[in-house]
Design a protein that fits this description.
alpha/beta, about 20% strand, 14 helices, elongated, 20 strands, 6-stranded mixed sheet, about 525 residues
Length: about 525
């Protein structure tokens, strides 16, 4: 059987196992990977090189699988990363079962009236997770098999961590760092670099390039809580509607290219709202006292403290403009009703959460909602009675990383393997544009750690131990993954030729020259 068919067949097997993030399916697919590797001759002989890493206190009993291939007297070691969870299949409606059957889904799509050109493309595979990223997981499984059967042809060890929860908060990768450090110590490994085989795709319509990324973007979850002044719905100008303030925050920041990061003539994606709500009070003719929104903010190298100062300035400008707009509207209202106009006498304020006395308690299982509820309690207890915007950060936090001059040996190794598998459509870029597990291979700067901690509602939520471990790992990285389209969408698909291409590049990274 040729290698491409082996990779495709294994990808189809993996897709057939539902493994939606935060479901028991993550445990099922981890068990499949573990058993598949257990059946290899190498792991029958070296059982201690195949490890289950359980996620502590996890109600779903999820676990990672870490597989090591150690070649005698060799210390240089490449880390492989692959996540086996997927997003949900709600977009498939009543045909959810088709999402997990690559062949049946394609037949169904071909029989439909859909005229999408890729549906009849011989090389395109459709299905949930086929691109993000079960084809990437299949690559690592087949590489472990191939290397283990021909050890004399390779001069680098390989350790692969198959992780859960990447589509959530990267819980799996966070719990891989300590086991990787333990393996390094136990077997005297030199971690030369790390490779994630997460998916790649076009970056704009008709983009001709296939990308390899020597780093990954970062992520801040930036929260704004607007505190209003309650009023009766029939007397709105006697108060300030918190929803009005927060809507102006959204107008200013959401999808605004003003709030981006720059690097080498590229920019991060614009901020986008991920959640928005007001104080849960049920139906009432009293206006809202609190309203809340948080934004996904993608970062490169701008310090966290600089980002937060930028957002505070934005909030101050929004608050000033909101008060100005309210007064203009109130003046017109007074004129319409023959009332003497006197400017509204509110005293607005913008503050970071560390200026508010928050006493963190567990009020909700969702960490972000818990933060909001704790801020709400602190606002009530502090007696804030003027329009106020409170700014803070919530988890998850992902630092951005890219390679530097000190990583040149790793860059040279990767570029050599890429040159042996040359394609004129290849483009090298410094940052993988999507949040990824690569963020945990190195620690953020000390100043960023301090800034993150100071802007959390609960400073204890900052995982000092995690970032200490990441600083010890301190591994250069690359993302080189199968190529396809529409990840997280109903027509998610991968070009199977790209699966083989990635396999060949990685094989050459590990192989003797």
């Amino acid at each position: 059987m040729n290698k491409q068919k082996q990779l495709v067949d294994l990808t189809k097997q993996l897709v057939s196992i539902p493994s939606v993030v935060n479901s028991e399916g993550e445990q099922h697919i981890a068990q499949f990977i573990y058993q598949w590797l257990s059946d290899l001759h190498y792991y029958k002989k070296h059982k201690d090189h195949l490890i289950k890493v359980e996620i502590p206190n996890d109600p779903l009993n999820r676990f990672n699988v870490i597989a090591l291939i150690k070649i005698d007297q060799i210390t240089d070691t490449v880390i492989g990363i692959g996540h086996f969870d997927t997003v949900d299949v709600l977009d498939f409606g009543s045909k959810k079962e088709l999402a997990y059957n690559v062949d049946a889904l394609k037949v169904n799509l071909q029989a439909s009236s859909n005229n999408h050109p890729h549906i009849n493309h011989d090389q395109m595979l459709f299905g949930r997770g086929v691109l993000d990223m079960k084809s990437g997981v299949a690559i690592w499984m087949e590489l472990l098999k191939g290397v283990s059967e021909d050890l004399s042809s390779y001069d680098k060890n390989l350790v692969v961590t198959f992780v859960c929860d990447e589509e959530g908060t990267s819980l799996g990768m966070r719990h891989s760092i300590q086991p990787l450090l333990s393996l390094r110590h136990q077997y005297n490994l030199n971690y030369f670099g790390a490779i994630d085989t997460d998916y790649t795709t076009q970056q704009y319509p008709d983009d001709p390039y296939h990308y390899v990324y020597f780093g990954t973007v970062g992520k801040l979850l930036v929260n704004f809580v607007a505190v209003g002044v309650e009023s009766h719905a029939s007397d709105p100008f006697s108060g300030v509607d918190a929803n009005f303030i927060i809507s102006e925050i959204v107008r200013e920041i959401n999808m605004n290219p003003k709030y981006i990061d720059h690097y080498q003539n590229k920019t991060t994606p614009v901020p986008i709202t991920l959640h928005m709500q007001n104080q849960d009070k049920g139906y009432s003719v009293q206006t809202s006292k609190l309203s809340w929104v948080y934004f996904n903010v993608t970062t490169y190298q701008t310090p966290v403290a600089t980002w937060m100062k930028r957002f505070k300035r934005a909030a101050e400008q929004v608050m000033a403009q909101t008060m100005k707009t309210l007064n203009k509207r109130y003046e017109k209202y007074c004129k319409n009703n023959e009332i003497e106009y006197k400017p509204l006498q509110f005293q607005p304020r913008v503050m970071f959460v560390d200026e508010l006395e928050v006493k963190p308690k567990l009020l909700h299982q969702d960490e972000r909602i818990n933060d909001f509820l704790n801020v709400q309690v602190a606002v009530d207890e502090s007696g804030i009675d003027q329009p106020t915007i409170i700014i803070y950060l919530s988890n998850p936090y992902y630092p951005a990383h890219t390679v530097s001059v000190s990583d040149q040996p790793w860059i040279d190794l990767m570029m050599h393997a890429l040159s042996k598998n040359y394609t004129n459509q290849l483009q090298i870029a410094p940052y993988y544009p999507y949040i990824s597990d690569l963020s945990f291979l190195r620690a953020p700067s000390n100043s960023d750690c301090m800034a993150i901690k100071s802007h959390l509602v609960n400073h204890q939520e900052f995982d000092d131990g995690l970032w200490k471990d990441a600083s010890l790992l301190n591994c250069p990285m690359v993302n080189i993954g199968p190529y396809g389209f529409d990840a997280h969408k109903r027509l998610e698909r991968v070009d199977q030729r790209s699966i083989l291409w990635v396999y060949q590049v990685l094989n050459d990274v590990l192989k003797k020259d």
